[in-house]
Design goal:
Blueprint (H helix, E strand, L loop, with lengths): L2 H14 L15 H14 L10 E4 L6 E4 L6 H9 L1 H17 L1
Helix pairs in contact: 2-4
């Protein structure tokens, strides 16, 4: 099966379930892997530039779930995806999907 398709299916499942609430008001992720996947997806979907947007994840002391942060060093998986060009390709695909959905 196509890994990108599997990832998108997983995102649909995750987004269809109500998220756990955190006193911070931030979106929560149940695992480190889910938070990293969502971080990379966010960079693919939104056109963040260096110094803008989330760059890492952390486990919240209040709710025990994972959140994004714009503080600290960049997440290793995110840095690898940016360096390899995966984010650029995903952005281009996302842009085309949005253009096609407008029709």
């Amino acid at each position: 099966m196509n890994p990108t398709r599997n990832f998108r299916i997983l995102l649909v499942i995750i987004r269809s379930h109500p998220a756990m609430k955190c006193s911070s008001g931030k979106r929560t992720y149940a695992s480190e892997t889910m938070a990293e996947d969502a971080l990379i997806e966010a960079w693919s979907r939104y056109h963040y530039t260096p110094g803008q947007g989330p760059v890492a994840i952390y486990r919240c002391d209040d709710c025990g779930q994972w959140h994004f942060t714009s503080q600290g060093p960049m997440n290793t998986r995110l840095a690898g995806a940016l360096k390899s060009g995966k984010i650029s390709l995903s952005r281009a695909a996302e842009d085309w999907l949005q253009k096609l959905n407008r029709r």
